[in-house]
Amino acid sequence: MITKRIIACLDVRDGRVVKGVQFVDLIDAGDPATQAARHAREGADEIVLLDITATHEGRATLLDTVRRTARELFVPFCVGGGIRSADDAAQVFEAGADKVSVNSAALADPMLIDAIGLSFGAQAVVVAIDARRDPQAADPVRDAQVLVQGGRKLTGRRVVEWAREAEARGAGEILLTSMDSDGMRTGFDCELTAAVSETVNIPVIASGGAGTVDHFVDVFGRGKADAALAASIFHFGVSSARSLKEELAKAGVSVRLPC
Amino acid sequence: MRVTVIDYKAGNLTSVLKALRHLGAEADVTDGDLAPVERAERIVLPGVGHFAATQRLDATGLTPAIHAAIARGIPFLGICVGMQWLYAGSSEAPGQPGLGHFAESCTRFPESKEKVPHVGWNSLEIRPDSRLLAGVEPGEYVYFTHSYKAPVTSDTAAVTHYIEPFASAVERGNVMGVQFHPEKSGTTGLKILGNFLKWQGAE
Predict the structure, then answer these.
(1) How far apart are CA A193 and CA A8, in angstroms?
(2) Which of A4, A175, B140, B162 is deepest in the core (most CB within 10 A)?
(3) CB–CB contact B186 A93 (8 Å)
């Protein structure tokens, strides 16, 4: 039976793992390679590394970080942040990533999704969408706003139609972050996740808001998520993917155990 | 242990090479040069991407070279599209023949309420005499990402259930294939690759 994936997410800036609330107030949370290896050892089904470095020097550091992180990692490894072209993607794959996640560059030039998929296969392209409910819209959930620049800038796109276009262009998965819940530890936005998951036929990874085991149970049930991303819940020894999955199994969620 | 890995430009080989080298194998890569295949001790055909990409194997002359290597008894492992290529063909690229080592063809998952592609960790029902999957316990999981799959036949070494039962591993003599990605399947995957690297002739 196919299992629900628990994906450990590392936000990386200038080669260090950081964590903040709603993309601000970042604090240092360790070395990416060490953290990724620990998550894999402790039962994470997949590792995502999101580079939030803005500087040029940081970009070179990223490839080195990806190489170091990938070296001893034998679970799927996705890298996102700052991938603006098929060439950028090729470098990240070359360094050892199995998938790349694209966000603002795909919104600026949707053909980027087609281009990466053509060279590396659809399974290698994850389209990351940062969404915020739009209380003004007729349907605040389906018409949630798509944002870029860490949630600071509106794009004019609506979440469901953008997810559908991404799929049509050959995206392999959607990584959906609720900007309303991100870093809040108050639970995933299950309505938003379900709206996207029911629209597309590719896996949807829910992100933003994980704080308790029940939040995961909820997003796999009501939210119809295929996978869920967790960052802060794992940091600072709060919990491991294994213990999270053991709790999920007790709640009737199909997960990879033992792991 | 020496392994020749075939590059047919369908996705990247980094992960497969890394896993083989981690297990102590000396891996060389060919993307068209036949000599490495002709003197190969073991061959791995990885693959993420589209079945049509296997056309390159025909264009470069690798197909007959691989066929000859298999006939010599060289252990061969196809991964994902590399496994599907061992069959007669795939509905993903109807005009493109596979090796035809297994007579059946690969087809897309039928329409259902489940999503296609099949992405994630799923379990294996293993044929007890499988040497490739020896030591893999019931309940161990491996990582899949695919939309096309091979049918269950007497050559099937493992069955996985998603929408319908399909062949997640195939094994007949020195020719083996896995639909999942052992290089991305944690310690279970490394165990399977290790079995392939240790495979020593027919018993």
Answers:
(1) 18
(2) A175
(3) no
The reply to whether residue B117 touches residue A172, judged by beta carbons under 8 angstroms, is: yes
> Which is catalytic among the residues B41, B114, B183, B203?
B183
What's the residue count for chain A?
Answer: 259
Decide if A203 and B120 are in contact by the 8 Å CB cutoff.
Answer: yes
Task: Supply the mean pLDDT for chain B.
Answer: 95
Dist. CA B66–CA A205, nearest whole Å = 39
Map tokens 């060919």 to a residue: B30
Domain containing B27: what range? 2-198
CB–CB of A111/A128 below 8 Å?
no
Identify the burial level of A98 via C-beta atoms within 10 angstroms of its C-beta, where 0-12 means exposed, 13-18 middle and 19 or more buried: buried
In the predicted model, is pLDDT for residue A236 greater than 60?
A: no
Dist CA A47 CA A26 (whole Å): 20
Q: What is the pLDDT of residue A183?
A: 79
CB contacts, 8 Å: A121 with chain B: 10-11, 48-50
Angle (nearest 5°) at CA B184 between A110 and A218: 70
CB neighbours of residue B201 within 10 Å: 8
Q: Which of B80, B120, B133, B49 is nearest to A2 (CA)?
A: B120
Q: Is residue B78 part of a domain?
A: yes
Strand partners, B143: B121
Q: Mark whether B181 is an active-site residue.
A: yes
Kindly identify which residue of chain B lies nearest to residue A77, measuring between CA atoms: B184
Is the CB of residue A196 less than 8 Å from the CB of residue A163? yes
Strand pairing class (B156-162; B164-172): antiparallel
What is the ipTM metric for this complex? Answer: 0.93
Residue B100 within any structural domain of the chain: yes
Domains present along chain A, CATH in parentheses = 5-250 (3.20.20.70)
As given in the structure block, the two tokens for residue B87 are 């069959």
Count of structural domains within chain B: 1
* Chain B partners within 8 Å of A258 (Cβ): 139
Query: Tell me: the pLDDT tens digits for A211-233?
Result: 889 999 999 999 999 999 987 67
B140-183 pLDDT, tens per residue? Answer: 999 999 999 999 999 999 999 999 999 999 999 999 999 999 99
Look up the CATH number of the domain holding residue B135: 3.40.50.880
Residues of chain A in contact with residue B139, where contact means CB-CB under 8 angstroms, are 258
Spatial CA neighbour of B183 closest among B26, B23, B4, B3: B23
Taking CB atoms and an 8 Å limit, are A172 and B145 in contact across chains? Answer: yes
Q: Which residues are paired to A148 by β-bridges? A: A153
Q: What is the pTM of this model?
A: 0.95
Residue B203 lies in a domain: no
